Amino acid sequence: MATYTINGQVLYVQEAGPAHGPIAILIHGWSSSSFTWAPIIPILSKRYRCIAIDLPGFGQSPAPDNKPTIVGYADLIAQIIVKLNGDHDRAVLVLGHSMGGQIATTLALLYPVLVDKLVLLNPALSGRLSTRVNLLMKPHVMAERSSVIEWLLYMASKTPLDYTDYLLKPSNFAERAHVSEQAYAKIREDARRRGQGQVRAACFVAMQQGDLRGQLGRVEPQTLVLWGAEDNIVPLRDAGAVAEEWPRADLRLIPNAGHWPQFEQTDATLRHIAHFLGLPPTLGDRPVETDNDLAHLQEIAAFLNNSEIGEHLTEAQRLRLASLVLSNGYGSGENVVAMNSNGDEMYIVKEGTLEVWLTTDSGTTRLASMNAGQVAGELALLEGVKRSAELRAGPQGAHLLVLTKEVLDGLAEDDPAMGMRMMQNLAISLGKRLRLQNWRAARAEENAPGLPQR
Ligand SMILES: Nc1ncnc2c1ncn2[C@@H]1O[C@@H]2COP(=O)(O)O[C@H]2[C@H]1O
Where does the record place the Cyclic nucleotide-binding domain (predicted)? Predict the structure, then answer.
């Protein structure tokens, strides 16, 4: 596992996926670890640079110096995003499970410029847990604040007196769930990890204090909320808060799943996430069985759904666009367009990175680096002027989808609603980039060592 140090706090993280891909931050829940994301990372890492964090005090990360709070965890994640983002002016995808969902939503409320999309699994939005947890688990958790009691209970768990499974299994999993013994053993190990009694108890309180009811309607990023229909840890009444306060969130219930839909109903969970993010239509490593050309087109269409230009198009519109874009590969550092040349095409990064270089009298500077889903070369195409900068494939090369002016004009003429949506998408992506740059500039001006005042 890799480690990062943020303001003296050491964090263990699991990383997967292309190093220059768009960033996905994965935040586990209470008494868990980055293992939470094991079923999701293989599909997510096909496009995203996945950063699955062990929160301070959980997994392998040492406990924080101060008492943990949900806002404190959100602030820490914001700092990780800023650190990892480098010169990508791009908000990131954030996934959160259970307490991690509460942290992710808090992050989106406090730092909307940093969060592009949210995927929440059984999020502890109100911080209120089930009656079963409060009656059976809470006394145990509170008692474990004392390291002596924690040790005694740990020793008891090695004897036939052990009741861990009795507490864990019916609370966490649906009656007809499919969780492998291996996965359960890891979840159990994380839940009973020694030396975490104090953080566990503090987070119990932190979750209650982090109640987000009444604020959900203000969450800006596009959000998918998945919930196991038989969750006995974070009850479905919090899904009721989503339905009532946050109608823009795409709320999906997963039958025969409890608190861990990603382990209990892996295929259904992955299908929802892949659809939401426009990931290739595969489940794990199994390709969907369709005709090759059609499958290829569907794959590009699904990808476009999550690109800066293709969001919110209908499926038919995306397929049409997919059939009209050209696919081009560029080697490391290869020139795509020269500065000041004429331009009648724009580019959507499919894989790798595309760098923007500006040459002036004082030299050549890299202005930005675009990764999967981002668009470049739109200015010359839309304005009919010369290229404002050079575009060059990044060190790992670039696979680009090319959209010509002729195709774009044709689409807008045939289907004005589609043309309008695509123009709106371009304006939104420029706006997001600008807001992030403004946020950075304000931060630099304040000369704050950490994060700006909110
Ligand atoms: N400061 C910048 N940040 C990000 N992208 C830029 C910046 N300046 C120019 N570009 C991109 O670089 C492209 C060069 O070709 P265009 O002028 O057609 O469109 C331009 C934008 O897409």
Answer: 309-429
